[in-house]
Amino acid sequence: MEEELIHKIEVKKYEQIVHKKYKSYKWLMYLSLFGLSLMFLSLTFLYFVSHLNAQQPDLIIAPVFYWNTIILLSSSSAVIIAQHHYRHDNFSEYKTSLLVWLGLGVLFLVGQICGWLVLFGSGFKFAHHSASYLYVISGIHAVHIIGALAFLIIFINKSWTTLKNYATSVVYFTDPVAQSQLKLFGIFWHFLGVLWLYLLFFFLCVG
Questions:
Q1: Which of 42, 72, 82, 132 fits 97 for a cystine, CB–CB 3.0-4.6 Å?
Q2: CB 94 within 8 A of CB 85
Q3: Angle at which helices 2-51 and 176-206 pack, to 10 degrees?
């Protein structure tokens, strides 16, 4: 009985340390997201100012970019579903949600490449003012998606060692580290989705 009580106290202390640590990470991430927001706002503002004096045909957004938007929004839904299954200890559904999340992220990147190729083939090359900005800005966004997917692959790989069977998954679903990482990464992924919506809306309006 005494050993069990000591164990509970140690677990509680460990959870408090982890939550305190990831609370600091959360504020650090918020600062990073603020910096990224300023960067993309600056890039789009520079494009808007220089676009006023550009004497070139308006940019035509390829339809594939609309499909990519649906894919990215669907991946955000997969994040919410994965977090729901984590909270309710749904072993198999949680694993499936993580794989769907990863698959949709990869599909979005493939769609972006297809969109760039369609634009390039339609005559909107780097010499075209608007197209060059779209390539650069959407390319920077894609780099952040790639970085996020790299982290997701590492996260899934680490999770799989504990999610091999239902018995060991019980430990995983009570791990404050996995819980905190999933929560923070979900916020970052939703941010990338909102950022892409802003970029698409901006290029549709400015042209």
A1: 82
A2: yes
A3: 10
